[in-house]
Amino acid sequence: MADIKVNNLNLWYSDFQALISVKAHFAEKKITAMIGPSGCGKSTLLRVFNRMNDLVEGVRIKGEVVIDEQDILSDKTDLVQLRKKVGMVFQRPNPFPLSIYENIVFGQRVHAEGLTRVKLDEVVEDSLRSVLLWDELKDKLKRSALTLSLEQKQRLCIARLIAVKPEILLMDEPCSTLDPQATSRIEELMRELKNNYTIIIVTHNMQQAARVSEETGFMLLGELVEFSKTQDIFTNPKDRRTEDYITGRYG
Amino acid sequence: MLRHLDEELKELHKDILRMAVFAQESIFKSIESLKNRDKYLAQDVISADNKIDELELAIDEKCIDLIARYQPMAGDLRYIATGMKINAELERIADIAVDIAQRSQELMEKPLLKPLVDIPKLSQVSQSMVRDVIDAFIKRDAQLARKVVLADAEADRLRNLVQDELINEYLARDIKTADRAVALLLIARYLERICDHTTNIAEDVIYMVEAKVVKHHPEELK
Questions:
Q1: What is this structure's pTM?
Q2: Which of A207, A214, A232, B31 is 20 to 30 A (C-alpha) from A24?
Q3: What digits encode the pLDDT tens for the residues B37-48?
Q4: What's the domain range around B36?
């Protein structure tokens, strides 16, 4: 099951506690949005799910994060496999300085060596189709990915993830560098993708969280204050702090 | 580009139309029960009220949800705001149909006071107003909505006719038939109220389509 169960999760950056006793269940094949002011811990939480915080010096993590019945915080976790299963889309699209084609098959070359050209071609087509880029780019696959527009680059980065068949897509402010039209097209893409993937999006843009997600978590100062159906969060939040934040009274 | 909100609005539109169909059915059945002295039909109207109430709540919740989640603007906002008001008017219309059905049940217990002439006429006016206003809502036709507003005068005229006849010919003459006369008087009053609610819907439709407020501003109707 591609859901994520988080239990009593605490995280420190040296002396600073960035996550405090977080408990949540991220449902399979749904879009869950994480909102909250800067520094509330939402990106930190996202990065726990594919163990990206491991790269930060002085980080300590306690608690349990279960994906596919396995506690991914355990030392035994195969990080390459975990990051294949749990892919991340970043704020600024980050294609490799390679061709469009090579960007997409990059993961295939890491995870599954010795694939035939025909098989790779198939992966490229399938991945580009699923991010609705195939028709635009099918004749330009050899072109450098750096020549694409920002929106196309972000789509390409999502295609690159999809190529290795993940189960969970983490998106950290995936639209913050895009204009409103491109944002709305990426949101449509997310709605398409959730039929096959569990998606967790961290966003500063509350309207985006409201529009696109089915469940929403509100974080403040490292705590998960409220986690509920998006409709409930935005029409009838249970916690005063959530209400203050979404109505713009916070601070 | 078709937005996700458009799909949600389509669903809302379908629900409001379902509400309109339920309200129309209730009026039709309540009047038929009165004309044919059919207690089963009257009971049908009373029983249907629960599902109409449920749908009203569901539509309201949907509208609040859309406002909270999509921050609709301009035409979208007017559509949703109007949808909420039309929803409430339709629910009131269905409630009034229940009142008619109840009076109709009471009247069945006793012999016919008089052949019904103007009440069926009034019911026809109200049903055709409701039909037209729903049509105007579906087609976003402000002209048709204006016609509905203007048709309300005929409903008032018929209601007065029924009222005068019942007071002068029955209530003033024979106290023993007062209960039946009052029941018929109330039914005429209910039908006229249905027309008033329908007029409100028509005014809302004009606002939705043209962003023009004609409520309390009859000069704007021209």
A1: 0.82
A2: A207
A3: 999 999 999 999
A4: 4-221
CA distance to partner chain B, nearest, from residue A210 (Å): 5
Calpha distance A52→A35 (Å, rounded):
20
The structural domains of chain A, with segments of one domain joined by +, span: 4-246
Q: Does the distance separating the beta carbons of A231 and B69 come in below 8 Å? A: yes
B102 vs B190: CA distance, rounded Å = 12
The series of mean pLDDT values per 10 residues for chain A, 251 residues long, is: 93 96 96 95 95 91 94 93 93 93 89 81 92 92 94 92 92 88 88 93 92 96 97 94 89 54
Alpha carbon of residue A33 to chain centroid:
10
Q: Domain A4-246 adopts which CATH fold? A: Rossmann fold (3.40.50)
For residue A25, give every residue at least 6 positions away whose Cβ sits within 8 Å of its Cβ, in sequence order, or none: A3, A4, A5, A6
On the CB side of B190, CA atoms within 13 Å amount to: 26
B170 secondary structure, DSSP code: I
Which chain A residues have a beta carbon less than 8 Å from that of B8?
none
Helix (H) or strand (E) holding A142: none
Closest CA to A143 of A105, A95, A100, A94: A100
Hey, is the C-beta of A185 within 8 angstroms of any chain B C-beta?
Answer: yes
Residue B212: CATH number of its domain: 1.20.58.220
- Predicted confidence at residue A121, as pLDDT, reads 93
Residue with tokens 């037209």: B132
Residue type, A104: I
